[in-house]
């Protein structure tokens, strides 16, 4: 009979049905079973966001698409679906304002947060600056495309949706004009596809929470919290809480071109948080950074707000206010 913590005899994990999401749920399952010796089961569900691959995310709900259907099961079992104890998300897909009744129970296992260049198979090119003028780069985010237009004005950027394997098939298809894709390196690494990474975009700010896993729970579920405390990634937690605070303060969603870079020194306890906001056409951008010693979680919230104020003082709000996500979609040079 397994040893039980706080009388928990089993934990039901929920997540999306994509191959990457299942791998992420399995990472959490393994960690809980090893640290608390509590058996876990995984329920993998297709969400609306998985099913609709033809439209930019911001046109039909944004980040909440990935979370709402699973959150229902945190509250109660429905038909053949069991009640969940935790939901495993890619943290960058979690809204910064979590609905009432739920909370972010833990931040776990941040893989490399950088964006990566994946060139077409057998391509002679290694970096974006080497690509010929007019080459087409596939990316699914305004954050990426707006920074890339700023840095590489000789290239064209076009939307590409689908899971990672679908995107790679599109890239390698001889009939497609994509020269390369920009993808989060974390997903490629977790899927065992790190060999497809041509190079890393070290000069680009990444998405809030990119590479980390967020574990959502029922609010004030102290028994589950005590289990998750054992698998929490301290460095990722501090960095990602600060990143999410910045996004929340600027009222940004997954379609807003906010990029971040965070670095936490576990010896000095100093956190450096950098942020950039770029207009979708890449013509305007504002960036700044804040350094602060982190003594408690509240300090992560404060550093995000402090950086938000610095960006606002430079005109970030004007860029954000000028972006209308639901209008003139086809007229814009990029899409999510």
From TrEMBL:
Domain Porphobilinogen deaminase N-terminal stretches: 11-225
Pathway: Porphyrin-containing compound metabolism; protoporphyrin-IX biosynthesis; coproporphyrinogen-III from 5-aminolevulinate: step 2/4
Molecular functions (GO terms): hydroxymethylbilane synthase activity
InterPro entries: HemC (IPR000860), Porphobilin_deaminase_cofac_BS (IPR022419), Porphobilin_deaminase_N (IPR022417), Porphobilinogen_deaminase_C (IPR022418), Porphobilinogen_deaminase_C_sf (IPR036803)
A cellular component term, taken from the record's GO annotations: cytoplasm
The keyword Transferase appears for this protein: yes
Enzyme Commission (EC) number: 2.5.1.61
Key word Transferase present: yes
Keywords: Heme biosynthesis, Porphyrin biosynthesis, Transferase
Domain Porphobilinogen deaminase C-terminal stretches: 238-312
One GO term (biological process): heme biosynthetic process
Cofactor dependence: dipyrromethane
Pfam family, one: Porphobil_deam
Source organism superkingdom: Eukaryota
NCBIfam families according to UniProt: hemC (TIGR00212)
UniProt similarity note: Belongs to the HMBS family.
Protein name, as recorded: Porphobilinogen deaminase
Originating organism: Candida verbasci
């Amino acid at each position: 009979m397994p040893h039980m913590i706080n009388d928990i005899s089993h934990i039901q994990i929920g997540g999306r049905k994509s191959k990457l999401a299942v791998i992420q749920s399995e990472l959490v399952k393994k960690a809980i079973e090893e640290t608390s010796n509590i058996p876990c089961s995984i329920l993998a569900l297709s969400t609306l966001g998985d099913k609709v691959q033809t439209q930019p995310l911001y046109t039909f709900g944004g980040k909440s698409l990935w979370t709402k259907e699973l959150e229902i099961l945190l509250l109660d079992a429905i038909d053949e679906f069991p009640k969940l104890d935790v939901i495993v998300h890619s943290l960058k897909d979690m809204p910064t304002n979590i609905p009432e009744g739920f909370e972010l129970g833990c931040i776990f296992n941040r893989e490399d947060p950088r964006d990566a260049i994946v060139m077409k198979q057998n391509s002679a090119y290694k970096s974006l600056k080497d690509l010929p003028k007019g080459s087409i780069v596939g990316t699914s985010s305004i954050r990426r495309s707006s920074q890339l237009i700023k840095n590489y004005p000789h290239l064209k950027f076009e939307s590409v949706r689908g899971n990672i394997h679908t995107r790679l098939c599109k890239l390698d298809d001889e009939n497609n004009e994509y020269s390369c894709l920009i993808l989060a390196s974390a997903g490629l690494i977790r899927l065992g596809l790190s060999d497809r990474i041509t190079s890393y975009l070290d000069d680009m700010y990444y998405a809030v929470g990119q590479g980390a896993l967020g574990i959502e729970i029922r609010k004030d579920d102290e028994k589950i919290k005590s289990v998750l405390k054992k698998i929490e990634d301290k460095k990722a937690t501090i960095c990602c809480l600060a990143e999410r605070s910045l996004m929340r303060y600027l009222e940004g969603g997954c379609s807003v071109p906010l990029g971040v870079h965070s670095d936490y020194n576990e010896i000095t306890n100093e956190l450096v948080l950098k942020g950039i906001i770029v207009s979708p056409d890449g013509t305007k951008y504002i960036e700044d950074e804040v350094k602060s010693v982190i003594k408690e979680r509240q300090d992560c919230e404060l550093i995000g707000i402090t950086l938000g104020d610095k960006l606002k003082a430079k005109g970030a709000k004007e860029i954000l206010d000028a972006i209308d996500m639901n209008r003139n979609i086809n007229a814009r040079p990029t899409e999510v």
